[in-house]
Amino acid sequence: MKSKTRYLTFNTKTRNAFVNITEDVQKVVNESKIKEGICLVNAMHITASIFVNDNEDGLHHDFEKWLEKLAPHAPTNQYRHNDTGEDNADAHLKRQIMGRETVVAITDGKLDFGPWEQIFYGEFDGQRNKRVLVKVIGD
Amino acid sequence: MKSKTRYLTFNTKTRNAFVNITEDVQKVVNESKIKEGICLVNAMHITASIFVNDNEDGLHHDFEKWLEKLAPHAPTNQYRHNDTGEDNADAHLKRQIMGRETVVAITDGKLDFGPWEQIFYGEFDGQRNKRVLVKVIGD
Amino acid sequence: MKSKTRYLTFNTKTRNAFVNITEDVQKVVNESKIKEGICLVNAMHITASIFVNDNEDGLHHDFEKWLEKLAPHAPTNQYRHNDTGEDNADAHLKRQIMGRETVVAITDGKLDFGPWEQIFYGEFDGQRNKRVLVKVIGD
Fold first, then answer.
1. Which helix (H) or strand (E) holds B28?
2. Interval A100-128: pLDDT, tens
3. Neighbours of chain A (3+ CB pairs under 8 A)
4. Secondary structure E strands in chain A
5. What is the rounded average pLDDT of the residues A31-58?
């Protein structure tokens, strides 16, 4: 069994952001020279997500509005977590909806995706360096 | 390390549907002859889910009603994604709640499940062919 | 490829609870002697979750309050699943938000975590024995 580990760093300009990282992940798969296996991609911070969905700006706007309705940022004093001096409790909740990680099949050296599947980094408390782990295992 | 890849196709009669695919997945595990490892099962379309929960019709009704409350289909013009000519923005949101994929342990050649665990295909924009990937890796 | 399988049992004193199981999982990784690979951790019951988030009591309070808003326990007769004699339909829904499983990278024999990542068992229908599966694969 072979394996390859890479850490990607993101620093988004806005508090909330969705970044398409599909090509970055495929590059790690290429470097691994693994033809059959799986690829784990996970946020290493607990106020960010990795998820697979559509590369469509309108949908990303819908996600942001929807997450704000389900887990509003303000008023920040509605969350006990923010009593610690943080203001990002909502980001911890939003990340649960969108998920921490994805596991993608590697077949014949490629991310084995349906026609519209793309991997996104979802940021809910950005404007600072945050890391994503990519681990490929297989043969 | 051995691996096995299979693609399952579903075409549900209704827009929303839950299909128990546990036996289909176990068949792929049997074909793989893998005794110890893991099995990844994921929707290859971004308006569908794979999840593990109870095989109980009342609960599936509850899931459908609950998802409709959290991410309503209508009015379709509440979503910018639907400005592209689609009417399935809600399906992209519902799939985030229910999840894209599951990873299941294989122990002694079987899906290593608790007493009530069953794998479901969750469809939120059906009535056309959509695929599910099953990848088994191990020894 | 090596593998190791362990089953952990939890019996929480309250109906809802969050239990930090990070050290229990690292112990299984240590026993496996696997240096590079992945670790799957999943609830074996469908009214419980495994998730990765912050080890902070205020946040756990926020999670509980938020989940109760999104998927209220009472009135129990709002759910058809409860017509079967159960009263835990809400627990099946809450588990979908928080997730069934996590897959964590193993690098150099350790859970490859960011600074705040911790693994939690999330219980939504406790006060009885329930199991969690830990499966490590790699070399």
1. helix B22-32
2. 999 999 999 999 999 999 999 999 999 99
3. B, C
4. 2-10, 17-20, 36-43, 48-53, 101-107, 110-111, 118-123, 130-138
5. 98
